[in-house]
Amino acid sequence: MSSAPPSRRVAAAPARPWRSLGLRLAIWYASATLASYVALAAILPMTVNAWAERDGQASTESLLTRYKDTFEAGGTDALHAMFDCHADPRSSVALRLIDDRNVELFSASSDDESSHLAEALSEKGARHLTRVGAPIGWHVAAVSVSQGRQLEILVHHESASLRWGRARRVSLVVLGCGLLSAILGAFFITRRALLPVAELARATQRIVESGDLGLRVQERGTTDSLDRLAALFNRMLSRNESLVRAMKESLDNVAHDLRTPLTRLRAGAELGLRETTDQKRAQEALAEVVEESDRVLAMLTTLMDITEAETGSMKLYKQAQDLAAIAREAIDLYDLVSTERGVHIVTHLDPGVIVEVDRQRIRQVCANLLDNAIKYTAPGGRVEVTVAADEGTGALTIRDNGMGIAPEDIPRVWDRLYRGDRSRSEHGLGLGLSLVKAVVMAHGGEVNLKSDVGAGTTVEVRLRLRDAGAL
User: Fold this and answer.
1) CA–CA distance from 73 to each of 62, 79, 107, 199, 326 (Å)?
2) What is the CATH topology of the domain spanning 22-165?
């Protein structure tokens, strides 16, 4: 006998740290932070240089004003004397006086550097000093004096150069610190930010490896997106766990409930095959086979209907319907059954309770509830059916004074194929209430159940009334 090949687990692809989300986030954060520090390191010396240029130019113009006042008061001799007396050793200065024909009348410089630079910056022919091409830290100023002459000055302030150099050094330090903090901060912040994601991945891996849906991701109790993701993941696990548990219980119940009818099917078929002489007995055996087949088919059909209703794939042909009329049809259908069992049906059906529903499906809901009420009510008991409008809904209430439901069974009566110990003595599939709830929920309604052991059960179905404006 050939056997199925053993299942193979596909090995997970090896992790690639350089392609991980954490590393990419760290690189993005570090790049953004480093770009900010680069911009700061570039702007800082430019700003300092602008301040130094402005202060240096103002100082140069102020010095030129003093030289002008001295010249106007004492001529070139006084100008020369002032230049010699007030030369600042920390500054390089070049001073000269030209007439209206651009003839140099006076020139003086504190050092060779200022002298050479003054000549280089002079325009050819006109011999005027110009700022164009002046190195950083050098300032040029000119002022008109008496008799159409012009006094020009070229000054280099050592403090400006020092500030410029200091600004560059500070920029390099800022850039270095920015690079270090960007790298360290990127990995620290990324690790902290992705911690819930890492925990989620570890929990998922544990669940996949162990198959234990009871495991949960630890929630930090914050309101950020990642913690909400962990909460939603836990809710999904809880839902999956409940669905898997319900599926297992349903399969167990299906296996249990199908075992008996299938055994009867086999026994009836075997009996029909053996009976070759007694035709009547063979026909009875085949009739039992057909009956059990119908029961199995009814169970499977109901299970499919419940599944379609719960998943939203059930086709509903909704129209405006009178809920009292639908209830009356179901009551008429079970009138003979209730009479045979000695159960009296009392009705309070208000007309004009218009709901937008699939008539056949809601009639099926009423029939299932009536069937349960009559089935679990002792002879001589009563079943009360009420239809009324209440708070914008149409309410269908079916109340009996039968055996009731045990408190421990009430939460599970809506489960598929669940039958309490007290109900196993009655013939049934255990799918009636499951179908009722699924169909009502598919219509956007709600169903509630109250029960006391020995006092009876009340089931209330609420469906939205049709909008009066749509009539």
Assistant:
1) 17, 9, 18, 87, 121
2) Beta-Lactamase (3.30.450)
